Structures are given as C-alpha cells and as structure tokens.
Amino acid sequence: MKTTAETRNPGDLSPRDVVERAIRVDQAGEFGAVRIYEGQLAALRWTGRSNSETGRKIAAMARAEREHNKVFDRLMVERRVRPTLLSPLWHVAGFALGAATALMGDKAAMACTVAVEETIDGHYAEQAAALGDDEAPLRATIEKFRAEEIEHKETALAAGAEEAPAYEALSAAIKAGSRLAIWLSTRV
Fold it and tell me: What is the pLDDT of residue 125?
C-alpha cells in the first residue's frame, strides 16, 4: 500500500502538508474557474450572445466548475485547511480574464478554456500521483474532476478554440498565468 509522501527526504512536505496544499490550491483553482466563466457569461450578456451555442456551452461548464468548487469548499472545512490569501485577487483576475476573452470572440473564450484546462489536467495528474492509498477518496475526487476538465477542453477544441486570433500567444499567456496562480495558491 502506497501512502502519501511515503518516500520523504529531509525538507520534503509531510503527508498533512501535501494534502493541505492540494485542497488549498484546488479550491482556489475551481474558484478561479467559476470566476472566469462568470466573466465570460457577463460579456456574452453584454454583447447579446448569452443564448448562443457558445453561451450554452460556457454555462454548462460553469455549472460543473461550481460543483467542483463546492466540493473543495466542503473539504477545506472538513480537513481544516486554510484558504489561499489570494482569493480576492483570483476573484477579480478570473472575472477579468473571462470577460476579456469573451469580448475577443467566441473562439477566444474557448481558447481560454483550452489553455486553463490543459494546465489543470497536468496539475491534477501530478496531485493524483502524489496521493497514496491513505488518501484514496481525495485522489478519486481529483481524478473525477480531471476527467471533467478534459471534457471541457475537448468541448472547447471542438468549438474552434484553435481558430482564435493569436491562439498560440493567447494560450501561452493564459497557461503561464495559470501555472503562476497554482504555484502562488499552493504556498500563500
């Protein structure tokens, strides 16, 4: 039976620290995802596109992210994990990113989803691998949510995300921001 942080070296995180960091960053990430979709939906309303196919897809993905966020909110309370101190920043930054990409067009909004979900896919995979059998329920939750995030990415790709203006640059910038947010939320 593999346990969390089983092969620790001096200075490595304790099993409790591994779990706390995972829950903290995942709650922050799901909160940020909710805010991105809220920003996109607001921009779609402002431009009269909320009932479009893109609007319906984004609304469906937003519902899934809200459910993910609720689970991590509950886990924070149950496990007595403090939230990241950066939540106010993610509140504003997530909404702004969502609104900006949706104002750039439907394909840019979907490009945002692809970039974020590709980053989260790797992040969740690393977390699942780090958790041992002693944290099987948490690992199962992360793996379930990872599968749903991959579905969001596939939905966005099918909707033409790669056709967004300056897709490569936009994607690279969003991925870099997502990786920075993960790093910061894990620690702060």
Answer: 94
Report the residue count for the chain: 188
| Residues 35-87 pLDDT 10s | 999 999 999 999 999 899 999 999 999 999 999 999 999 999 999 999 999 99
65: left (phi over 0), alpha (psi -120 to 50) or beta: alpha
> Is the residue at 6 inside a domain?
no
When divided into structural domains, the chain yields a total of 1
pLDDT tens-digit series, residues 22-33? 999 999 999 999
Residue 98 near residue 35 (C-beta atoms within 8 A) = yes
Instruction: Single out the residue of 61, 76, 29, 74 nearest to residue 148, CA to CA.
Output: 61
Neighbouring CB atoms inside 10 A of 19's CB total 22
- The amino acid at residue 184 is L
Residue 94 lies in a domain: yes
10 within domain boundaries: no
Answer yes or no: are the C-beta atoms of 60 and 140 closer than 8 Å. Answer: no
Domain encompassing residue 181? 15-187
